[in-house]
Structure to design on (363 residues):
């Protein structure tokens, strides 16, 4: 995931903004964990560089080590994504704000029948901004962000994954308010795995995850922890898990205007804005995700550089003047479209919209 514009001090897009929901500073004193700042640009978010309170004490060194691993690999103390960094996806933004941010901001209004949702699922093709949305949510809620890839739990934690899940929720409560983002949930909670062939450890871990999610609404100290999950294949998800992910939000491929925004954000420093034809490049990128457009722009930037290097090498010119990076032309971008394959799965978009009409949560 590339660093969004807000991390470099610029806000790229105008979109459904929101007043910040300050849930109180988790920062007391203690260890400072992972910061994503760039030296050249002072951080836009005053929360950057906050300190987390000290880690809880555990009964054994094994548990302490597990907690430290989670803090090192999974905890991102500074997600620092603004809603405005994300091109369009207004429905998803509004739905998330209503489902997660508002219950936290106005808890009195959401007690009893209108209780907050247990968990939220972001589904859609890969590279469309699901992780960015989760980070924007965590940023707005000033929550500690735990970013876990389900496939890495499966591969790295096999035997210990049940303990890892328990510890993850324990730390999330300790550093509350927290957001736990589980990417690629399907690799963990696939209904296909329940055919009896499943490894005992992985069955226990799944059960633990369900138990922990059920426990979120009854935490003795009322700590706020919300779970967001993402999947590219929501139809593969286990029914028990799906029941707990009460809100399901489609994050689709970018529209023409979103693609234009993305191109303009990524290329504006590298083109002559007066002559570069953003509209025709955007029109040619239908079917590409935001992540694909990122790759396309990098390729477009490389083309004139490659041509210049070739010229210098060929002519064996030893330049005495400093080299300047050549501007990207419209043709560079159009040529790059042709060699940028959609990284999306072969799943047709209609499959997502059909699933959405059956299981999704519209506004
Ligand atoms: P996902 O979690 O859906 O696979 P990510 O949120 O990790 O996708 O997005 C991957 C990258 O693609 C981002 O870092 C960003 O550069 C770009 N991107 C995708 N969608 C958007 C969007 N709607 N607005 C801005 N950037 C986007």
């Amino acid at each position: 995931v590339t660093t969004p514009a807000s991390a470099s001090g610029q806000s790229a897009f105008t979109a459904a903004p929101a007043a910040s929901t300050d849930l109180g500073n988790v920062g007391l004193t203690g260890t400072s964990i992972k910061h994503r700042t760039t030296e050249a640009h002072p951080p836009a978010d005053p929360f950057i560089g906050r300190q987390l309170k000290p880690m809880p004490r555990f009964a054994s060194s094994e548990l302490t080590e597990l907690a430290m691993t989670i803090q090192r690999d999974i905890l991102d103390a500074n997600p620092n994504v603004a809603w405005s960094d994300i091109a369009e996806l207004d429905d998803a933004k509004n739905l998330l704000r209503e489902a997660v941010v508002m219950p936290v901001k106005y808890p009195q209004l959401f007690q009893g029948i209108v209780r907050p949702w247990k968990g939220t699922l972001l589904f859609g093709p890969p590279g469309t901004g699901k992780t960015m949305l989760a980070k924007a949510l965590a940023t707005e809620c000033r929550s500690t962000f735990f970013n876990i890839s389900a496939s890495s739990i499966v591969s790295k934690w096999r035997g210990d994954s049940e303990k890892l899940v328990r510890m993850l929720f324990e730390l999330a409560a300790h550093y509350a308010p927290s957001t736990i983002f589980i990417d690629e949930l399907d690799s963990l909670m696939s209904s296909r795995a329940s055919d009896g062939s499943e490894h005992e450890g992985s069955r226990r871990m799944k059960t633990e995850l369900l138990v922990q999610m059920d426990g979120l609404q009854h935490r003795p100290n009322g700590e706020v922890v919300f779970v967001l999950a993402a999947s590219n294949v929501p139809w593969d998800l286990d029914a028990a898990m799906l029941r707990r992910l009460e809100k399901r939000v489609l994050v689709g491929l970018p529209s023409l205007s979103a693609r234009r925004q993305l191109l303009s954000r990524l290329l504006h420093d590298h083109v002559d804005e007066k002559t570069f034809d953003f509209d025709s490049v955007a029109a040619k990128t239908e079917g590409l995700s935001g992540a694909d457009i990122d790759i396309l722009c990098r390729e477009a930037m490389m083309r004139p550089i490659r041509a210049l290097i070739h010229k210098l090498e060929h002519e064996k010119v030893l330049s005495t003047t400093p080299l300047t990076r050549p501007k990207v032309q419209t043709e560079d971008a159009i040529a790059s479209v042709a060699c940028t394959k959609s990284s999306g799965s072969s799943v047709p978009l209609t499959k997502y919209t059909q699933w959405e009409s059956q299981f999704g949560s519209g506004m």
The mean pLDDT is 79. The CA atoms of residues 159 and 165 lie 12 Å apart. The beta strands are 75-76, 119-123, 144-149, 178-183, 225-231, 247-250.
